[in-house]
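[Discussion] Sanity-checking designs against the backbone

I'm trying to build intuition for which residues belong where. Below is a structure token string of 331 positions. I'd appreciate it if someone posts a full sequence so I can compare it with mine line by line.
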């Protein structure tokens, strides 16, 4: 099985290689693709060293699967070329997510939507994935009317250079390369991705639009504020939900505990609640601080945390690939 990984040298790309190995995905030949300056560099995988190649060389090798983590412009150009040779593409960029002809997939929630004609499959935004993992079982039972979400997102979501900026600031270095418009250490930036005409950022609108598409319900009212915080372990979210039907906290916990890929950490008496430091390196979405919103009828508050490089990106992409394998769409 020939597998191309486009963006193999980036933070998410390397995490994808790690997850492919951990999950024993049956790769017989790896085709790592990266920018021109990385061509020839060696990438370790499966006990071997694989040379980074140009996209045209990977296409010539005719892979059956390509996993992309190289940005929207690269996906726009190259994904159709890989699909045209019969290669299934799992794309981690935002480019294809809201295309009505492309599926936006979180396997535990809507993996059944994938069919034999799907050659470009979109991997959702990291902050969206962890929220819908907790919301999906609740929506099925109680029906979501409205969501208000505020995020506290790790610098790892911006890549290697963002981590370097934070660490350099902590070390008191000067003349450093800035990826963010302001210092991130000892600071909080209410600004992720670019601002739109409506005053929201692209990241905030991704959460709005992608959540509706994944849950299959355009009637859900959603508003989001996304914030970058100086942590490295994962993303955290404060989620307020208004349901259409009454609920009990006991039933909410039952549904969350039964959801594959969700771990409930919720015992205030023992100071047990999710934190990014302890979610780092794990695949689950951790949910806690579960409590009724006493200001409205049928309102619920919870806090969820997940490693954005894993379930928020690499793990979800590899799970989609596993789904394609299980359905017999790749061999």
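Best answer:
Here's mine. Compare freely.
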């Amino acid at each position: 099985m020939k597998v191309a990984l486009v963006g193999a040298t980036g933070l998410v790309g390397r995490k994808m290689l790690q997850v492919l190995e951990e999950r024993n995905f049956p790769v017989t030949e790896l085709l790592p693709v990266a920018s021109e300056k990385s061509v020839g560099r060696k990438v370790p995988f499966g006990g071997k060293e694989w040379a980074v190649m140009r996209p045209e060389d990977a296409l010539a090798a005719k892979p059956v699967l390509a996993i992309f983590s190289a940005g929207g412009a690269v996906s726009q150009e190259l994904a159709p070329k890989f699909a045209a040779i019969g290669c299934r593409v799992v794309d981690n960029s935002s480019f294809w997510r809201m295309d009505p002809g492309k599926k936006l997939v979180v396997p535990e929630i809507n993996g059944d939507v994938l069919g034999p004609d799907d050659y470009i499959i979109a991997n959702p935004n990291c902050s969206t994935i962890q929220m819908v993992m907790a919301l999906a079982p609740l929506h099925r039972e109680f029906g979501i009317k409205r969501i208000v979400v505020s995020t506290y997102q790790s610098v790892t979501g911006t890549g290697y250079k963002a981590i370097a900026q934070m660490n350099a600031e902590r070390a008191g270095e000067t003349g450093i390369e800035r990826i963010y418009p302001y210092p991130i250490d000892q600071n909080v930036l209410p600004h992720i991705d670019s601002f739109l005409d409506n005053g929201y950022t692209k990241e905030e609108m991704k959460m709005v639009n992608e959540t509706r598409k994944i849950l299959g319900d355009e009637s859900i009212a959603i508003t989001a504020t996304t914030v970058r915080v100086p942590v490295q372990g994962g993303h955290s979210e404060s989620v307020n939900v208004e349901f259409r039907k009454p609920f009990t906290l006991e039933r909410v916990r039952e549904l969350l505990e039964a959801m594959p890929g969700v771990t409930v950490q919720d015992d205030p008496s023992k100071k047990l609640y999710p934190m990014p430091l302890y979610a780092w390196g794990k695949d689950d979405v951790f949910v806690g601080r579960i409590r009724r919103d006493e200001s409205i009828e049928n309102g619920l508050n919870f806090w969820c945390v997940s490693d954005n490089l894993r379930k928020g990106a690499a793990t979800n992409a590899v799970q989609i690939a596993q789904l394609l394998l299980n359905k017999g769409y790749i061999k």
